[in-house]
């Protein structure tokens, strides 16, 4: 009896989690559709996590577009667990999806998912993060290009090409992450020819603001003469602003981030922050659905579809500022 | 705590006291050692601002680790603290964004933390669910609720009356002041009240504590309740300090808190240890990270070194405990 109780307690907790991640699914029964819907296209979308505003916005974009196109979308959340992702995909296939959108937890470890999709003749489109094995198409963004754009802006802020001089602190994402690597490499590629520029690579702060604050506090002690901070995402950049504000250095230090988080765009408008690079999740979700519909209808699509990017700075911030959005939209 | 480490000679009255003293004394020396190493390695280490930064970076883990000390003293473990911190931060931000009075919002949030702690304690004592599992369930569901509140979105624009909690008095950040006050209160409660003594009794030997008439379940449950309250306080302070409620806050914090408690000499088997050691344990961990950051060394080395420190601390505590 007691055991049953405790078991029930744990079960309830786990069910709650499932409820959290499942609540935005349109009916996930899938198999018992009415006659009228029999020819409706069904798209499955396996996400690595819904624990960040970026991914929730990506799904929002996808859901809106699916409704517009009149297709059925089933979203599953792997909670950063590759095992769960593989079994998620299995169950999507069992539910009879026509196209699979896959944002892999790990590019190489989704092989079981891809095998299962192949056996069931379900085309796979990788979204946001690419898979190691080639699939029908990859819809994503060039994070290296984002790093390059941030680097070019940094050079401009530090005196222009050929004359740029100063000390840059880099607040990095997650150790070993592909996005981190790309945003790091792109930036370094841009500034590598500037003899007067020195980059201090800061500790990995996992894209989390609290960790970026601690890192920046320490780095500011070691490098009080810093001229510019480049953060791998805007949430960390907002933490950097906070540290600089509290130590009265915000006027002397330029800041460049990535993502186009609306909160950061607001700060650009207020002049606290120089620039961010667009990484609009909503449009990526829309693109994913549009292409999934095309594939589902038997059309062929490009092997690589670029979601695009761009720079938001003091000169064009007015075009992007929109309080109702969470991220700046690509124009 | 400085109150435990003053004096140069061990009092020769009781063996137990001497041992206790030696243990604290050692920890304190290790802390001083790190201070010396830090100052030698970087000229930025021993500046007022840097020391304040280290204290500030310690404060959230520090507050959570106080609660963890209580729980570990009765041979329990609480994995839910990071998630409870996140949910509390979201709850207080949510209430504030509805225009609630900050004092009221804080009180409600602390009560919610207490409730979560109580549920963990109740599950593990009443239904004999192992603490590891009960608090793991709480961790998973609290994190789920934290994300559910706003669909994973952070809450911005908290009122200045509330974010004042993240500011400084003079140059000392408010979270640091609260951490020190809570540490002193808890240390006194553990050392000089019947509640504290009974906790040691329960942790030392549950069965004999039960036979001597202590209501063991009540005491064990109360430690989880305290842990929930302290995690909620840390969550409130973190939101105020970051001026944003974030559902992903405090991830992995439970492990840092457990490590700090262990480094501080509290035994995972229960019944041995104290708040002063935990305080120093938290500082040692923060100083290591700080030194690595000042020197610009990779986080990878940081993790390896931290692992080594935890093992060394465990071995040392074991050795001191067995020394007659």
What does this entry look like structurally?
The complex is a heterodimer of chains A (331) and B (324). Helices cover 44% and strands 18% of the residues of chain A. Chain A has helices at 2-22, 53-69, 82-94, 111-119, 143-157, 178-191, 209-222, 234-246, 262-269, 281-296, 317-320, and strands at 42-47, 72-77, 99-102, 124-127, 137-140, 165-172, 196-204, 228-231, 254-259, 275-278, 304-306, 311-313. In chain A, α3 (82-94) runs parallel beside α4 (111-119), α5 (143-157) runs parallel beside α6 (178-191) and α7 packs across α8. Chain A is elongated, with a radius of gyration of 22 Å. Helix content of chain B is 75%, strand content 1%. Chain B is built from 14 helices and 2 strands. In chain B, a hairpin with a 2-residue loop joins β1 and β2 (172-173). The two termini of chain B are 24 Å apart.
Estimate what percentage of residues of chain B fall within beta strands: under 5%
- Integer-rounded radius of gyration of chain B: 20 Å
SS class of chain A: alpha/beta
Shape of chain B: globular
C-alpha termini separation of chain A = 61 Å
Give unreliable regions of chain A as ranges.
17-36
The percent range for strand residues of chain A is 15-25%
Count, helices of chain A: 11
Question: Strand order, biggest sheet of chain B?
Answer: 1-2
Fraction in helix of chain A:
40-55%
Low-confidence stretches of chain B: 1-14
Oligomeric composition of the shown chains: heterodimer
Mean residue pLDDT of chain B: 89
Report the count of strand segments of chain B: 2
